[in-house]
Write a structure and sequence with these properties.
It is built from 4 helices and 4 strands, in the order αβββαααβ. By secondary structure, the chain is α+β, with helices and mostly antiparallel strands. The two termini are 28 Å apart. The relative contact order is 0.21. The mean pLDDT is 92.
Length: 157
């Protein structure tokens, strides 16, 4: 990776960490799920609201390192308006990129590409995927219940 690209990616991460998008509690969410990464101390909650199959709104709140927060912010910005299937597919793709299994998929991921560098830092992979695991848990909960009910916290451990 070139130094310029590294810098660009870093500035995207810092920007989303400083000014996280969709950072709020959602009172009328259909589902929410908590995620925690004890190795780093990251903790967050994801809220999802649906219009049929479509994710009409998504938000998060929590605390943790810059990577976990930036990743959550980027995720919310990306999955809003997507269908549940599209969000799940994006999760698989994102996971393949940050774990270094499918680095080639990074090219088609827009701003999420900024997180592709974490594949070089195994401990950071958990930080970057935390919000996604929580989103995945919330989606699964909606599929089963379709109603608001708390789910057990997920851990990236
Ligand atoms: Zn972290």
């Amino acid at each position: 990776m070139s130094a310029e690209l590294d810098e660009l990616y870093q500035s995207i991460i810092l920007d989303h960490n400083r000014r996280p998008r969709n950072y709020r509690v959602m009172d009328d969410a259909h589902v929410h799920a908590d995620g925690q990464n004890p190795l780093c101390g990251d903790q967050l909650t994801i809220w999802l609201k649906f219009d049929g199959e479509q994710i009409s709104d998504v938000s998060f709140q929590g605390h943790g390192c810059a990577i976990s927060k930036a990743s959550a912010s980027l995720m919310t910005a990306t999955i809003k308006g997507k269908t549940r299937d599209e969000a799940e597919r994006l999760f698989s793709k994102f996971h393949g990129v940050v774990t270094g299994v499918h680095p080639e998929d990074a090219e088609s991921m827009g701003s999420l590409k900024a997180l592709s560098g974490v594949s070089r830092f195994p401990l950071r992979v958990k930080c970057a995927s935390l919000a996604w695991h929580a989103m995945h848990a919330a989606l699964a909960q909606y599929a089963t219940a379709g109603e608001a009910a708390p789910v057990a916290p997920v851990s990236t451990e």
